[in-house]
Design a protein that fits this description.
- It comes from Solea senegalensis (Senegalese sole).
- This is Extracellular calcium-sensing receptor-like.
- It is found in: Cell membrane.
- The chain is an alpha/beta fold.
- It has an eight-stranded mixed beta sheet with strand order 10-9-11-12-13-20-21-22, sandwiched between helices.
- Helix 1 packs parallel to helix 12, helix 14 runs parallel beside helix 21 and helix 17 runs antiparallel to helix 18.
Length: 833
């Protein structure tokens, strides 16, 4: 059976393909043999208006007569029923090949030089492959699939609808503009949906954003499958979801979203449903679709179109010649239009009868609504593009190889002239096609807003223009109403924005947009949101508590205000005053035997050196400077050598005093007071020389230790020359060991004259302190190395003071009866006996 056709004869007849009915398929779309039975149901008012716009444009051209004088255009229009199979059958009938497949390519076009349609990309793909064999020009008004720009596969395909490449570019720029990094993508199961969604997903990823989910609405719109998609949208956490599908597939998704109460989603609409009244008109969708955004091709007003649409009336028309008028009329008025066939009247008893004289102007529906003429304008431009190409053919100069016979125009000749056509129409729009057969992309950014009367208004809130390869998106943000009637831009991210002071850390096995916010480590900062990495502060700076700024590090040294400094200062001053007290006691009792017994001059010199030892420890406390660093080490080295030299002198005196009691011994003349002073001066002079050379070659200097992992700058004195420092300590240790050996040799001398035991104990303490000092000094961090050195100085000084002078002070003050010559001599005699 031939398909129903709306036909009007003319000198040149244009073919037309329109999906006047939506398809309901009874089986799955995944078939392997013949297509399953289909039912063309649900008459589509919007597509019917597109068809009427084609007729209006043809009649306008015929009536005007200036564009194609003496030429009448006719039309032959089929219903493709939203299916590729039906679209292919209609194309074959247009070409006259439905019943005969043996005609040549040159003659089987059935006097149809061009076809306008189809609307759906999937239908156009099938038709374009077929018509391309005959080089029959096909101008689509709504097929936007980017795949149709391939001129090798579809050489005869042109369109007045921009390619999805441009629509996707606009959508991607929209996502980028509002900072959405976690976007869901839902596509229809056709070339339009899959192709556009795939391009969008790829381009969004190049921006650094992520696709939260990418699902396909099956063509059979099985409830279980659609319900699964809604569940995945809910669980994904995406608050912005693009639906790249035709209006029928989108409606199935939104019906299920209503059933499952999926709210709070900011829907992005592809061009196929961004202005679809089938979704914007029913109030049931207002709850979830209010605030939706999408791109729609530019709208315009076509003068006279609405009157033409409303003049349609089957009462005075030959209805059988317009097979689409009856279902349209019955759907509009929900009635049964009685028709007479072979003398019998046929009516649908389930609906009230209607006469056909009803007024379309009394009914508000999508068909008569000309406030959003977008696709209708594409149809209008397609007709005029073909008419201008025909005009160019009839106006060309004979002899031109591209100039065909105007009375015998072949489709390939018309195709060539359509590709070359360029004109500005009565609305001021330039109509031309690029090398891919695509027009320039000009979109309106539309926003679905609830009106005061409760209806849905499609408001233009921005534009997108593609001019000479430059793409520019302009948005009037103040005019946008978002989902939920909010004015604040919705946030759609997998993870919250990382504030300053943190950085993004990618979650394993998650998309790159899903991250955790990790606080910058100590010493690192980030002063911007969503920082990829933290920046390490310079060595002298440290991060503040918020990790947002670098601040100068705290300078640390052993100060007088520090707890440790106060304690060491107190201990040092106590030692100083104790030594001064001993000096006072010795001066007051300088004539007593116990003071005079062991060379009182050496004792006073030793006390003076101990006083200096206690005081030199104070030079280690306070902020290091050039002078304090040089003073502390040299004063320490010289005063301790002086102290140990005095002890060495006292040890020699004790030892030599008893050697001199042997008959014939003249040892004491070599160790008199002058020689003792010479020993002390010579021993000290060596240390002075070492210190002078040290200060000239590599003096101690202040140094800042700035460890990366520490919030403090350690200010200390660098030894300058480790060798010189080792020599100073080594020389002190040499003298101390010599004192220890000599004192050990004199340990059995009579007690009353014998300081050797006291010196032995003091030297043991001295040596133990400084032997322990070396590893402790090396391993102590920062200012604690200075504390270790001060502690060693004080400990050894207290050891000398306590071991040598404490017993004598005890006798002088508490046991004065023992501080007599008689007592001392009696003890000596007893020891000798």
């Amino acid at each position: 059976m031939s398909l129903p056709v709306l036909e009007k004869k003319g000198d040149i007849t244009l073919g037309g393909l329109f999906s006047l009915h939506d398809m309901v398929e009874e089986h799955s779309v995944s078939y392997t043999s013949a297509p399953p039975p289909t039912q063309c149901t649900r008459f589509n008012f919007r597509t019917f208006r597109w068809m009427q716009t084609m007729i209006f444009a043809i009649e306008e051209i015929n009536r005007d007569g200036r564009l194609l004088p003496n030429i009448t255009l006719g039309y032959k229009i089929y219903d493709s029923c939203s299916t590729p199979h039906q679209a292919l059958r209609a194309a074959m009938e247009l070409m006259g090949t439905e019943k005969s497949s043996v005609q040549s390519k040159e003659t089987c076009h059935g006097n149809i030089p061009a076809v306008i349609g189809d609307g759906g990309s999937t239908q156009s793909l099938v038709v374009a492959r077929f018509l391309g064999v005959f080089h029959m020009p096909q101008v689509s008004y709504f097929s936007s699939c980017a795949c149709l720009s391939d001129k090798k596969e579809f050489p005869a395909f042109l369109r007045t609808m921009p390619s999805d490449f441009f629509q996707v570019d606009a959508l991607v720029q929209l996502v980028k503009h509002f900072g959405w990094s976690w976007v869901g993508v839902i596509a229809g199961d056709d070339d339009y949906g899959r192709g556009g969604a795939n391009i969008f997903a790829d381009k969004v990823r190049t921006l650094g954003a992520c696709v939260a989910l990418h699902e396909i609405i099956p063509k059979n719109r099985a409830p279980a499958a659609v319900s699964s998609i809604v569940s995945k949208i809910r669980s994904s956490g995406a608050r912005v979801v693009l639906v790249f599908a035709v209006e029928q597939d989108a409606a199935a998704l939104f019906d299920e979203a209503l059933r499952e109460d999926l709210t709070g989603i900011q829907w992005l609409a592809s061009e196929a449903w961004s202005t679809a009244a089938v979704l914007s008109s029913p109030k049931k969708y207002h709850q979830i679709l209010q605030g939706s955004m999408g791109f729609a091709i530019r709208q315009t007003h076509i003068p006279g179109l609405q009157d033409f649409l409303l003049r349609l009336n089957p009462a005075g028309a030959d209805v059988p010649e317009n097979p689409f008028l009856k279902p349209f009329w019955e759907e509009v008025f929900q009635c049964s239009l009685g028709l007479t066939t072979n003398g019998q009247e046929h009516t649908d008893e389930r609906k009230p009868p209607c006469s056909g004289s009803e007024e379309l102007g009394n009914v508000t529906n999508i068909y008569s609504d000309v406030s959003q003429l977008r696709i209708s304008y594409n149809v209008y431009k397609a007709v005029y593009a073909i008419a201008h190409a025909l005009h160019a053919i009839r106006s060309c100069v004979k002899g031109d190889p591209h100039c065909p016979d105007p009375d015998n125009i072949q489709p390939w000749q018309l195709l060539h002239h359509i590709k070359q056509v360029t004109f500005v129409n009565s609305f001021g729009d330039e109509i031309k096609f690029d090398e891919n057969g695509d027009p320039a992309a000009m979109y309106d950014l539309v926003n679905w807003q609830l009106a005061a009367n409760g209806g849905m208004e499609i408001t233009t809130v921005g534009t997108f223009d593609e001019m000479s390869g430059k793409q520019e998106l302009q948005i009037q943000e103040q005019n946008i109403i978002w989902n939920g009637n909010r004015t604040k831009v919705p946030l759609s991210v997998c993870s919250s924005i990382c504030p300053p002071g943190t950085r993004k850390a990618i979650r394993p096995n998650f998309p790159i947009c899903c991250h955790d916010c990790v606080v910058c480590t100590d010493g690192e900062i980030s002063n911007q949101t969503d920082a990829i990495e933290c920046v390490r502060c310079l060595p002298e700076f440290w991060s503040d508590s918020q990790r947002m700024a670098c601040i100068p590090k705290e300078v640390e040294f052993l100060s007088f205000s520090d707890t440790m400094g106060v304690v060491l200062t107190a201990i040092s001053l106590i030692g100083f005053f104790c030594t001064c007290t001993v000096v006072v006691i010795f001066i007051h009792h300088r004539a007593t035997p116990i003071v005079r017994a062991n060379n009182s001059e050496l004792s006073f010199l030793l006390l003076l050196s101990l006083t200096l030892c206690f005081l030199c420890s104070l030079t280690f406390i306070g902020r290091p400077s050039q002078w304090s660093c040089m003073l502390r080490h040299t004063a320490f080295g010289i005063t301790f050598v002086l102290c140990v030299s005095c002890i060495l002198g006292k040890t020699i005196v004790v030892l030599m005093a008893f050697k001199a009691t042997l008959p014939g011994t003249k040892v004491m003349k070599w160790f008199g007071p002058a020689q003792q002073k010479a020993i002390i001066i010579f021993s000290t002079l060596i240390q002075v020389i070492i210190c002078i050379v040290w200060l000239f070659v590599a003096p101690p200097t202040p140094r800042k230790l700035m460890p990366r992992e520490s919030p403090i700058v350690i200010l200390l004195c660098d030894e300058g020359s480790p060798v010189a420092f080792a020599l100073v300590l080594g020389y002190i240790g040499l003298l101390a060991c010599l004192c220890l050996v000599l004192a050990f040799l004199a340990r059995k001398l009579p007690d009353n004259f014998n300081e050797a035991k006291l010196i032995t104990f003091s030297m043991l303490i001295f040596c133990a302190v400084w032997v322990a000092f070396v590893p402790a000094y090396i391993s102590s961090p920062g200012k604690y190395s200075t504390v270790t050195e001060v502690f060693a100085i004080l400990a050894s000084s207290y050891g000398l003071l306590g071991c040598i002078f404490a017993p004598k002070c005890y006798i002088i003050i508490l046991r004065p009866e023992k501080n007599s010559r008689k007592h001392l001599l009696s003890r000596v005699a007893t020891d000798k006996f």
